[in-house]
Target: Carbohydrate kinase
Amino acid sequence: MPGRFISTHSMVLALPLHVDHLPERGAAVEAETAAARPGGGYVTLAAAAAQGVKASMASPLGTGPNSYTVRQHLEEADVEILTTELVGDIGIAIQLVEADGSTTSVVTAGVESEPSRAALDRITLHDGDLVHISGVDLTNRIGAETLTGWGASLPESVMLVVSISPAVEEVPVSAWRRLLSRADVVTMNIREKAALDAILTRVEPGLSIRHIMRPHAAVVRRLGVMGCELQVNESAPRIHLPAFDAFTVDTAGVGDTHIATMCASLLKGASLEDACRAANAAAAFTIAHESALPVPTLADIEQILEQGGLIYSS
Model:
């Protein structure tokens, strides 16, 4: 049996608003609303579970109605909850989805921003488990100290995958140094990699993400419509994997789906190259649908891999 996918990526309740364009500062635009749905780490966990691996949530949930809604969705997705509930509630993410699928989010903080080291230490880890820590949860002091400390102390028998987030500039440099020096795989998009390398260079000239990471660790750079690029270790060549054909409808959750599919494939014994190829197929499915839900099934991904892209009926 493969190990578990354990994610500390925090949960929020998402409220998507579809707009023709973003308003100028002080202006207003009309929006079409969709039903509230679980966001943040939910997509990552649900996508991993849909690939047939055991998915476990290691981020806080509260006692409020937002948490109750997300908890129901987690149970339906067959995601195990490893943490005890806190008094309070998780935050809300207001998502402005433009006509071209681009998504801009405004997020309020709740109990998800208060991870507990004691709660994480109570999780029994097994050889072969894969832990995912998202940079989105490192922007506040408690999250940065708790998650980097726990992540850095993980046993070598557990794989650590770190995803850089759009809020890369808000994370303390010390947190990046500590977490990336333990990571087995670091995944990020084009902007996130450029931003973090620029931050590190300002701290120490010539310093980059690769310099902090261990020689055997891998880097995955998501390139949007160009697919992704990977380097399995420090001395290996960079490999480019093209994206699969798909029409862009909504970019929300595409990165999370890519990360989850890559991790699930690694847990099932795939090479990093094959895992990223499957992740590209999952991303093509997600970007062609309004919202990141429902997540692609294993059959969806296999079909895209076989066909070389999404087949649209005339």
